[in-house]
Amino acid sequence: MEGRGNTTSGIGCHICGLVLARGGSKRIPRKNVRSIAGLPLLAWVLHPMLDCKKLTSVWVSTDDTEIAEVALRYGAQVHYRDKKTAKDSSSSLAGVQDFVHKHPEISVIALVQCTSPCLLPMYLDKACEMILDQKYDSVFSVVRQKKLRWKEVKPGESTEPLNFNPRQRPRQQDWDGELVESGHFYVTRVSVIKDNLLQGKRCGYVEMPEELCIEIDSETDWIIAEKLLELYGYKKNWIPCKSNHTPPPPHLILICNWGCLNKERAPPPPEQTSTALRRATFLSPIRVGFTSFG
E-strand spans in the chain? Predict the structure, then answer.
């Protein structure tokens, strides 16, 4: 296997950047090659991976020829994965193990998910450094959230808080919040993967900025991710998208606030509402808000 000529990843330590990209996406068909903010989704993670100082090689594991062509166009090498590991029910671990089995020279896998496309090289390099210099076995990306969580119960049952005391309800500015996986990357020693784990033994994390954290799982997520990529996406060596997989028309979410329905504040007449809606169809923001008319 041809490497990238990278000498900073550690003597005798081959750190491989890997993206698992199946062709059979169901919730968002063909998402890996679909254009978002001017590039195929896959390209948004390949660019920062190729600029990581600590990665020895960058690969895309796929079962799809079009995805393979996009991967090669944007600088990655291609591994054609076993069909058994490319099913809807296949786990990420199975896909990684299939790759590792065919590439025994690799010491560390940096699994990157293109469904979290706002990735910058510095964060992935930091994770690799923690593996090399601080002797971690697994390092993954997290984001800090300040959400008050409640226990899910059956209808008629009483719920209860899971991470706070209602008698001492915290203010956001007084609470550090909790760390949750952001989904950007999982950097793991091959020895851990061979033990049937993506995260195991001595684990560490790299905290990601909130503005880089979106996990694409729906068309609504796609719209939000596109806006974030336009602002924060890694654009070095930008190559326009050549894919024919264009997104559907953007959703238009109208947030209407007519005020109190009383004699002094009645809703607008239908003709005014229709005019506003016609104007809104020419706008492209994620949300269009109407607070009042007339």
Answer: 15-21, 35-36, 39-40, 57-62, 77-80, 108-112, 138-145, 178-189, 203-207, 253-256, 287-290
Can 169 be counted among the known catalytic residues? Answer: yes
How many angstroms from the chain centroid is the CA of residue 16?
A: 19
Question: Which residues, including other chains, have CB under 8 Å from residue 62's CB and lie 6 or more apart?
Answer: 20, 21, 22, 23, 32, 68, 71, 78, 79, 80, 81, 86
Q: Is the dihedral of CA 20, 26, 27, 30 positive or negative?
A: positive
Report the C-alpha dihedral over residues 212, 232, 241, 99, rounded to 10 degrees. -40
Alpha carbons 179 and 112: distance in angstroms, whole number: 19
What is the pLDDT at residue 270?
A: 44
Q: Which two tokens stand for residue 53?
A: 């100082």
> What are the tokens at 82?
């076993």
Which is the catalytic residue, given 27, 149, 169, 287?
Answer: 169
237-271 per-position pLDDT tens digit: 555 555 444 444 444 444 444 444 344 444 444 44
Placement of tokens 């944007």 in the chain: 74
Q: Which residues pair with 19 in a beta bridge?
A: 60
Task: Give every CB contact of residue 174 below 8 A, 6+ residues apart in sequence.
Answer: none
Instruction: Report the b/e string of 66-88 with b at 16+ CB within 10 A.
Output: bbbebbeebbbbbbebbeebbee
pLDDT tens sequence across 67-124: 999 999 999 999 998 888 777 778 999 999 999 999 999 999 999 999 999 999 999 9
pTM for this structure? 0.78
pLDDT digits (tens, 9 = 90+) for 129-175: 999 999 999 999 999 999 999 999 999 999 999 999 999 999 989 99
Residue among 115, 146, 126 at smallest CA distance from 207: 126
